[in-house]
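Two proteins follow. First one:
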Amino acid sequence: MVKNHDMWNSNHDKISPALRLSYEQLPSNLKVCLAYCSIFPKGCVIEIDKLIQLWVAEGLISQASNESEDLEDIGTRYFQELLSKSFFQDVEEYRSIFTSICRLHDLVHDLALSAAGFEFCLVTSHIQNISDEVRHVAFSDYDLSGKELPASLLNNQALRTISFSIGGIGPMSTLYVENCIARFVQLKVLDISDSCFDELPSSVGELKYLRYLDVSANGSIKELPNSINKLLSLQTLRVSHCAQLEGLPKDIGNLISLKHLYITAKQACFPDKAIGCLSSLRSLFIYSCNNLVSLSEGLQHLTSLRTLAIIGCPRLTFFPSAMKHLTALENLLIVDCEELTLLEWQDIEGLRMLRSLVIGGLREMESKDVQCLGSLQMLVLAGLPQLATLPRWLEGASSTLQYLRVERCLNFAALPKWLENLTSLEKLEISKCSTLFSLPEGMSCLTNMKVLRIDN
């Protein structure tokens, strides 16, 4: 069947016949997810979590018969299926410490563009006519300093996606953004990251279908309008790396559908009602909050929270006691929080479900005997100047740990003899640990090892 397929004789496009045949064999749900990847620029690094959030926002993920399974979990399974068929490549788990990334090969990107057909359009200064069938547009090489949208786009009432993030340059005018909001009221995805406008128009509250809003990396914006609290369908809000943002709107707890929040703000603490009321929240990323001294006790209400990341908060000194209520927590990232010391691990009951733990840039880390890491599968230790060997609490994950990485720990001198007990370990990476001179003799016991990478 494969040998005789007429695709081998097709000359109608530049897509490899073998690649197109592989695409044709995909089920329809995976086809549309791959086609949506055309929204990303060719050759760019793709944040895997962001990709899955976009799939969910666009309604590309179908609810399985098991209604208790989250759409993000199904999206992760979709990604893994496409990865297993080599449609994605260069997957790096927590390579940037903060997130896992991947790439699309250029040929696969061409395939995605072809599969998207008229539904996707990359808008450049040379584009004159945009089809009425377009549902997703990304702006590149377009004059974003002006006030006008392409004339052929203005009457497209069915537009679902607008992305300005291509090339790292977003709109520079509040009026420009306001025109987008006024024209395209059925938007589900609005990505205006890397912008420099002063305020988000209050009319954003009229986008009642909006599920994904990205205003991150805006160095000018100082506040979010209160009208944002009207976005009852919003699932993902990204306002990280907004250095001038004063804080979250006081009634942000009204966002009953919000699952993913990425935030940078000047607040010393987040009011309990600001975050504690977000009962649907699955992931919370707190970036570069230079004034943050404490986390809200309202965390105890986030019983659905599965990922907590605290990155670049130099004044944060302790975790609240509410941490023990995060019984669904699976992923914890603590990076570049110089004043934070991790002492009473055994008091944090939420760690019992922890699957991945990333610790980096802490001045010191106590190595206490902890018995609650029985589910841990991934551990990254980075930039810990006092770390001389692996912490003893890691032994509690001896039968589950699959991936271990130690990097930039200048006093890391030895791997312990009990490393041989990590019988499930598949991948061990050691980087920039100049004091380490040898591996323990028990390495031969690690019979599940697939990757051993040592550099510098």
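Second one, unrelated to the first:
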Amino acid sequence: MSILSSMEAPTVDVDLSPERIENEKEGGPMFHCDLHDTEVVHKLAQMFLPGLASACVDHTTGAPFNTPGSVADDMRKEMKDYLTQRSESFVAESVILDDGADGEVSDHPFDIISCFVDDFVDSKRNLLSQVSGWLLSDKREDKIDDFVQEMETNGFWLLDKRQKVAENLLKNVDFKNLFHCSASFINAEDLDNHFDNCNFRAVVCNNVGCNARFSAVHLKEHDEHCPFKIIPCEQKCTDNIMRRDMDRHCITVCPMKLVNCPFYAVGCRSAIAQCMVGKHCSDDLQSHLLHLLKGIHKDASGGDLNRRVELIVQASSSNRLAEARDLRALKSIVRDIEAKLGPLEVSVIEKTSAKTVAKNEDAEDIDTKTKGDAQALTSSDKAEESATSNKNGADNAVNNEEDNEHKENGKDDSAKNE
């Protein structure tokens, strides 16, 4: 039997929204504000349906004649009664826990009621669910998701009904009045006036394109993060940009975006705002020319290059050099001017200095070669001495052998004579 066919028709929910309490005080009734944090209530209402589905699925695990849909209606009533009872006794329980608990317990209503829902689901697991690996299986999660979809499709426990339950539970556990209004008034007129200024009144974001709805107490926080809010450019340009488009603006079209100098390839490492590139090229013209000439005249000294830069600037017409906005344009202009100026002239001092450096380098090469030859000769002499020594040693060994033979012959002759 499918879940859809076994699910009973939804029954009429009991409205658990708090009634207006009227206490006799000074001869008149008391009117209480019932506004609350709509965001927390909505989150709680969204949590109830998966909790109910988990309880139904775990309760009917392994039961051949029961399905989650067949127990959904009764389980919903039990769940509402259980959560209401736990919320009403929460204040007394929290006092006991505060006296004996070692760790900190969250006082946020969502965390508190989530624990209530988890406890209810645990209490509805049958024996098979508890002793098997069902609770950790992927099949269980899939079955719960499927059942949640079935209940939403069939309109079982609609969202507005769940929100009524959530409002009641929120007021029971929020004893610090952080998420609901606790104001009271003697007459209805004062209460109506209060609604217009209550921190928990429902408001809608004013930013064009944003449809977020929340309590007025969160207005400032939402405004600081709303993706549709128009704010000044983070890079201090004159544009006002939607917050969600800020990153794209800053890295694409923003005139204050930092870019490399157009002459980065020849040595200028300046990072400048995109709108200041023209001014930078004009202000640092001589520096860019010097970088460019270093690549063209690689053997020239710094003094010669600086003089060449001055000549090029003097020979250029009006602002022709300053208007060059890229390396290719500047190279073309410099090439034309240098063709008119002729070859780069190196000063006498620089030439003498260059010759001196060349001579020193040659002298160093000669000294290095001489030292190498001397080391080679020394090694050769040592080799010859070693060979001579070895030869003398061999000759001495031969002579010693001959002496020994003469001595032995002399002994033999003496023996014969005797």
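SUMMARY FIELD: The beta strands are 31-32, 184-185, 202-204, 213-215, 230-232, 240-242, 258-260, 271-273. Residues 348-417 form the longest helix (70 residues).
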